[in-house]
Amino acid sequence: MPAPIRLRELIRTIRTARTQAEEREMIQKECAAIRSSFREEDNTYRCRNVAKLLYMHMLGYPAHFGQLECLKLIASQKFTDKRIGYLGAMLLLDERQDVHLLMTNCIKNDLNHSTQYVQGLALCTLGCMGSSEMCRDLAGEVEKLLKTSNSYLRKKAALCAVHVIRKVPELMEMFLPATKNLLSEKNHGVLHTSVVLLTEMCERSPDMLAHFRKLVPQLVRILKNLIMSGYSPEHDVSGISDPFLQVRILRLLRILGKGDDDSSEAMNDILAQVATNTETSKNVGNAILYETVLTIMDIKSESGLRVLAINILGRFLLNNDKNIRYVALTSLLKTVQTDHNAVQRHRSTIVDCLKDLDVSIKRRAMELSFALVNGNNIRGMMKELLYFLDSCDPEFKADCASGVFLAAEKYAPSKRWHIDTIMRVLTTAGSYVRDDSVPNLIQLITNSVEMHAYTVQRLYKALLDDISQQPLVQVASWCIGEYGDLLVSGQCEEEEPIQVTEDEVLDVLEGLLVSNLSTPVTRGYALTAIMKLSTRFTSVNRIKKVVSIYGSSIDVELQQRAVEYNALFKKYDHMRPALLERMPIMEKTASNGPTEIVQTNGEAEPSVVEAKHPPPVTQPTNQANDLLDLLGGNDVVPVIQTTVPAKPASAGGELLDLLGDLSLSGGPAPAPATSVPSSQPAFLLDGLTSPPLFNDIAAAGIPPMTAYNKNGLKIDFTFERANPNPNIAVITIHASNSTEADMTDFVFQAAVPKTFQLQLLSPSSNVVPALNQGTVTQVIRVLNPQKQQLRMRIKLTYTHKGSAVQDLAEVNNFPPQSWQ
């Protein structure tokens, strides 16, 4: 058989291939030849064939059939064979394949070989792909080599020990004695790998971290020698002595100094020296400075040192390298909360980064700019950020608009400035703002009584210029509907009033109704605004005509509004002025009425909601079925009460039809009580003439009871009778918490047999305060027409000290007065 071609010739041949298909053909032909050679057990050219196979593997072609040949090369006595064999094992084998276990004995023999280079090959292979079983078997040999005086083997053994610790952390203590003398080594390679090993051990074990803190002075001394040493050709990189070792030592110091006063004190001086003596003209120096800054920020360093670190990051912002500017912005963003004043000194440089062409730098600069906004610089910062909002890419507009809203709400110097700023955002990037921006701005305008005339005039002008920004159009429509009389009368004092007639205002609103740019929600705002103007303008007949047209609109929402407003004109005209009067000032603490709670950056803020017909309340089927087994069968009628709703419904929305909607058993519902409306009102206001659902409740002298008392949570029931229907028992639960921690996400659920009907109203809170400092109350109404003994199964869920708790209990000992 002719000798196979050499690796060099194979590479040259493959590189001559002009197409992928031609290259594939060459590879397949060569693989066939290599397979034939392997089958014939050709020891002479096995090394050459495996080397070619590894090259083909690096090109992405399958080479798994060479795994056993690698093991044969490892077992060879020739160094050249071992070298290729170990290289093949590292590339073709991993711990997922059982073949690698066959190497264990060979590696053990080679770790004890008389030649250091063979020992080095074995250490490299074990440190690269050794499985946990191999690491357990060979850890003793590695530890022995870690103590040898040969620096070539010690540095490889240290890296191999890192791999062993990662695979089998419990073997960490085996290497502890060997680490004592590692830092006294003069060889930089051994020092570097030793620091890597110590870092790994400290990160994985708090005990090791405490043990190695005593090495801080020694590490400081090594770092000082590196800084102060003169030119050393074998370690010098761009004029800096061994920057790789310096970076590794700084990382280890960061871990050792975190949360420890003594260690931090010991390294303060050397960190200051590194920060002031390192050359910044080359990237190597910047890498060391960046690690120094991270270390200063993580340990308990002095305030002057932290200012120095932030000034280094400020210098990074002026660097031409985009990567350096990016890491500086990211680091400043992390430190701005703890060192706000020091970061503020670099505000102008940070704002300049908003003009950078790189999008990632712009995003980081925008986030940092918002973090720097405070009451003193709000005007200047908002000017820059609004300019950025005007010119930035669409992908930034939503986040930028949201940040401007939050900053303006928190630091606005005056209400007029606040309104002007938000209107500027809506005009510039109205299509990108968050959904809660419209109700939040409406609430702001409503509460700024002295600004009503100014605001409605500004918004009217904005509508004349542009109706494409839907949030702006919605706010403008709402304000014109509320304060249209102020607009027409020209009462604006803040700027020169404009002369507007009623017909011009109505023309604008009617234009919104027919515009293709208007969304269904915007049309709803416009129609409601026109309706409100029927009590503020004299053109009532024109408004009636517009409203009646939309009574047959294909948009169901718009049609419903128009039909209900038509009913107002006809059936309830005497009530129209009172119903359409101006909205009162909205208090943020209001729990009912026209506000809803919106989560804004972790804080609950109220926002205005449209007065709309509440949708019929339906029970979620899947939730109901989950509770059907509470009483052990199908004869139960569960009532589901979820957590406190984020949007408290109006009083009318919480009044469920006790007798119509809650029957989940499939049978016919009992006849309705006289005080409960049996059908849905035909129009929004038809229900106003119906008798109230809840009558005054009279105390019936029923003794209270404790339904549940476990793990510090106590549930008490108090009872009342509803007049005039004695079949309805009103039970109020009082949940108290005697533990030392609040119980959050508290949810009370209940189920009763199907002969009863039950309704849960919203709880007063979803947090049960600790140490009995308050209670959560919730009202349960139970209809018991057959006067049967009351039985109930309750389900409690809550979060206590970070753990979710869930419990079931059955309550059968109700006082007879509560159900007789």
UniProtKB/TrEMBL annotation:
Summary of the function given for this chain in its UniProt record? Subunit of clathrin-associated adaptor protein complex 1 that plays a role in protein sorting in the late-Golgi/trans-Golgi network (TGN) and/or endosomes. The AP complexes mediate both the recruitment of clathrin to membranes and the recognition of sorting signals within the cytosolic tails of transmembrane cargo molecules.
Q: Where in the cell is it found?
A: Cytoplasm, Perinuclear region; Cytoplasmic vesicle, Clathrin-coated vesicle membrane; Golgi apparatus; Membrane, Coated pit
The membrane topology of this protein is: Peripheral membrane protein
Q: Which protein family is it in? A: Belongs to the adaptor complexes large subunit family.
List keywords of the entry alphabetically.
Coated pit, Cytoplasm, Cytoplasmic vesicle, Golgi apparatus, Membrane, Protein transport, Transport
Q: Which SUPFAM superfamilies does the record cross-reference, listed alphabetically? A: ARM repeat, Clathrin adaptor appendage domain
Give the matching Pfam families.
Answer: Adaptin_N, Alpha_adaptinC2
One term under GO cellular component: perinuclear region of cytoplasm
GO biological process, alphabetically ordered: intracellular protein transport; vesicle-mediated transport
Mind telling me what this protein is named?
AP-1 complex subunit gamma
Any idea where the GAE domain is? 700-815
Determine if Cell cycle is one of this entry's keywords: no
Source organism per UniProt: Neolamprologus brichardi
PROSITE patterns per the UniProt record, alphabetical: GAE (PS50180)
